[in-house]
Amino acid sequence: MVGIAVQGLTKVYQSRSHPGGVLAIDGVDLAVADHEFVCLLGPSGCGKSTILNVLSGLDRKYGGAVSVAGRMTSRANDHPYRVGYIFQEPRLLPWLSVRRNIEFALESDGIRRSEWRSRTDNWLKRVGLADFAEGHPHELSGGMQQRTSIARAFAVDPEILLMDEPFSGLDELTARAMRELLLEIWLETRKTVIFVTHNCFEACFLADRIVVLTPRPGKICKEVTVELQRPRNYDDSRLFEMSVSVTHYVTSKEGS
Amino acid sequence: MSAVTDTKIPVAAPPSRPRIPESVSIRVASMVALLMLWQLASFAFSERYVPAPLPTFSALWQLAQSGELVKHFEVTMFRMLVSFAIAMLVGMAIGTVMGLHRRAEQALDLVVMVGLTIPGLCYIIVSFMWLGLNERAAILAIAWTTFPAIAINIWQGVKAIDQRLIDMARTFGASGWRRTTRVVIPQVLPYLMAAARFGLGIIWKVTVLVELLGRSDGIGYMLNYSFQMFNMVNVFAWTIFFTLVMLAIELGILKTIERRLFLWRPEIRA
């Protein structure tokens, strides 16, 4: 069964300097199975984030067809399926406590109030922030803020998880710990994930399958299945070799 | 504010604090010093020119006993509150439109700047010449002088709204109403408070001027009346009274609202 189906996705941005518009994505077909972890990999400007914006419903002016769990995104329905989105920045509401930030997402997604307490406590505990539930975002470090945003995304029990370079704003040591945490949680929940990154090593460490995109206009140039067993280890030499070959696909001008 | 870390570091117990915080005691001391300077000045010059604190407060007491104080206070407060409400509504409407639409911003930014630059006295004179020496003209003049400063603050606040937080709310399915009330308005609130404060700061000054020029009651009128009588003690008494009322509004109402609204902020918590 197909969890996410994207067919012939095309996106044109209106621009003053280019009256005809700028073609950002040109006919992308993408099928993601349930419980699959897919990384979209490519340099900046290849439309990776645009694909996430279309899937999340933030962007509704596009060509092609997009469906998740059999439900189509459309102009008519604002929120046809439940999305957990982890952004590059934590995007927490600074005036709310950590707990209230997660409850804001639960409330927005129409989850019953009686479940808020247990869901929030469980997920904060899972990301190691049980003691910080009543604190405010500015009292947390950058990594802890991003852990809050991970807890928020999982707490709504989403049908798909979208992640837009969530660890690129963190220092490498923190980012490593966060990737390991993410994989642990993912192995427990097996949510369908689309993870956008420009970091080849990160893609190899996380993904079941890597989709490499070329820039301007964004097109799929290569798909790589990552055969490495889970749980994966940063010190695995096969991981390193694989990231070298994937880097080659990304940097080669030809693309295919 | 430093980030919280997981490790627990032993911390020495804080020293026992004096009951009155230092920030309060310094302020009280500075007010006492001001009173003493005032007293010294009245010694140095004649009481005719600088009435001492005691006679001033006793004149204030007499004004209160005669009922004059309350009567003129009520009139002045009424004018200020009505004009403030009008100026806030107009300023919020214009500031919001300017913050949301680039064309409106380009059309109005110079207009608002010009409005802010023209002296309040000009608005007052023009209003009285248009509408006559009446209450409507007074309120128009005060509101007119005040709204540009409010509009500018709201404009900046609307421009500073973080679209990324609104997008976050949308991905979790928050309705337009929830995005507005729970994500947009809390972001604009600090600017709204700043606008209110700027507005009140202008309104104090304009209202007494309006009363001096074209009304026959209110604190501004009584100041002018005392001037005509060359009654320096009453000039001082009315000034002190007015200042105390404004301080009470500033410290008692505005500060309290701000503290409650922005409790989460690090600089206010510390």
Structure summary:
Chain A has 256 residues and is an alpha/beta fold. Chain A is 34% helix and 25% strand.
**Number of separate domains of chain B:** 1
Q: List the secondary-structure elements of chain B in sequence, H or E.
A: HHHHHHHHHHH
What would the CATH topology of the largest domain in chain A be? Rossmann fold
The CATH H-level homologous superfamily of the largest domain in chain A: P-loop containing nucleotide triphosphate hydrolases
Structural class of chain B: mainly alpha
N-to-C CA distance of chain A: 28 Å
Classified by CATH, the class of the largest domain in chain A is Alpha Beta
Helix content of chain B: over 70%
The CATH superfamily title of chain B = MetI-like
Terminal Cα span of chain B? 8 Å
Mean pLDDT of chain A: 88
CATH architecture of chain B: Orthogonal Bundle
Q: Helical stretch count of chain A?
A: 7
Radius of gyration of chain B: 24 Å
How much beta of chain A, percentage-wise?
25-35%
Q: What is the subunit organization of this protein?
A: heterodimer
How much helicity do the residues of chain A have?
A: 25-40%
CATH architecture descriptor name of the largest domain in chain A: 3-Layer(aba) Sandwich
